[in-house]
Amino acid sequence: MTNPAERSRSALQGPMRVANRMHLRATGLDDEAIDKPFVGVVHTHSEVSPCVMSLAPQAAAAKVGVEVAGATARECSTVSISDVWTMVHETGPQFSLISREVIADSVELVLQGQRYDAAVTLGACDKTVPGMLMALTRVNIPGVYVHGGAALRGWSKGEPINFYRVFGDMDRTLAGDMSEDELEALNRDAMVSVGTCPGLNTASTGAACAEVMGFSALGTASIPAVYSQRIALARKAGEHAVRLLMEGGPRPRDWVTRESLENAVTVVAAMRGSSNMLLHLPAIANEAGVRFELKDMIDILRRTPRITSLIPNGPHALIDLDRIGGLPVVFKALLDGGLLHPHTPTNDGRTLAEALADAPAPDGKIVRSCDDPFQPDSGLVVLQGNLAPDGCIVKTADIPVLVFEGPARVFDGDAAARKGIAAGEFSAGEVIIVRGEGPRGSPGMREMLDAPIPIRQRGMGRDVALVTDGRWPAGTGGLCVAHVSPEAHAGGPLALVENGDIVRIDAQQGTIDFKVLDEEIARRRANLPPPQFWSGGGVGEKYARVVGPTHLGAPTHSYR
Ligand code: FES
């Protein structure tokens, strides 16, 4: 039988490895500790955002679990940056998505470079979650993902604050309907502790995916960041990582199969979670050698009803879901509705159906059954057509117009769009296209916070449609199409659109086309200048030259 700790032993046994043992002794380990298996405890704790500031005590608890279970824990941290901050960059790289790759690569480097036998990874913001899942899958040693948990939400005048109201208040202030002092006062208490944004943002949606796929123990993602329970669960995760190593059990790639990916998309749809996870799931799949792309999600997003009422789709926060049993309540409702594959492995090796056998029933307020959903569809639609042959995403929830046809108004990049839209260079009935903001073009797939604001301020959200190969942070009230693939910078058809071309978006049929004759499209393509890569140096320049297409998750190493 092979030694489960053979990775670390290969770095520590025999006279040739004396320098490594010397190094470990210099870190304070004795011979007994050096003779045990090694478990890397890797997290993204830092002071850059509240999201990740809950991770240090959880990582410390995970180390205790590792040691109690008979292995030696080694702690390491890596970077994280907050999407909220990176949205303000008008030109140049959008660092957030790039950080996902840096996180995955850096965790790979330490787990492989140090020959650790197993891992506990901890994350807690939009890109740290997929980055950690990608790293675990890539390295494929026994491992567990621990999510950091959401922040506590604030209260004002006896009412819980909906965290997302900050964006509405921002609009009102910009429109002159609220003073900046009022804005500050109203939002001072919106987020009152460390932890991730307390609604269904990308981090929480990603944590739900991690749980249903098997990376995390069931019932853990919804526990608030500052609850003491988190210390206990992190300790258990440390123990479990050692158990997976010593006794065998699912490895990360066992958790990343077509069926588990379909389950994850179903959960995103049923919660109407962040559409960013529809970008990250193909990237996680890529690490397991599974080709899973945007078009594979079309039917799932169509058939899955929304069965939760979590912020921003309802009044409840994750802490409310936690009080009724956490995500297993959602998973069980989906399982009972026949919408989840029942035999995928969970974190402890049982099948999903076995592990959810005793999960609580929906309460009817926060979670409903599939027979009695809050809405009959997910409100997330993948479109395809001659403008997006490999797909794109539109959110249809609460959008009154599902079919939109109008002349294109083209802006090359976010900076031009901000300027043009603020100057009123658009009209009702137009399809506003902001291109060159995909993974290669930005580089980093910009999330364009500011460009739509003047549209909303003029009350024209429903009168125009927005289309981009980048991302929109929040709706204008009308159709907002994002993630167009292939992106303009890679020669996607979006690069060929001219002002005045008629664009038709049909979210009912799932299509997006521009009405230009094939011969004319070919003529424009022949005249398309070669793309200019971002040449400002640094990580953005490196990233732009290697990043893959959006529909495959924008990976930076060979996608299959
Ligand atoms: Fe980090 Fe929202 S910005 S979770």
UniProtKB/TrEMBL annotation:
Residues 36-354 form the Dihydroxy-acid/6-phosphogluconate dehydratase N-terminal domain. Residues 365-554 form the Dihydroxy-acid/6-phosphogluconate dehydratase C-terminal domain. GO terms for biological process: branched-chain amino acid biosynthetic process. Its EC number is 4.2.1.9. It comes from the Bacteria. Keywords: Iron, Iron-sulfur, Lyase, Metal-binding. PANTHER family: DIHYDROXY-ACID DEHYDRATASE DAD, DIHYDROXY-ACID DEHYDRATASE, MITOCHONDRIAL. It is an enzyme of class 4 (lyase). One of its GO terms (molecular function) is metal ion binding. InterPro entries: DHAD_IlvD/Edd (IPR050165), Dihydro-acid_dehy_C (IPR042096), DiOHA_6PGluconate_deHydtase_CS (IPR020558), ILV_EDD_C (IPR056740), ILV_EDD_N (IPR000581), IlvD/EDD_N (IPR037237). Belongs to the IlvD/Edd family. This is Dihydroxy-acid dehydratase. The keyword Isomerase does not apply.
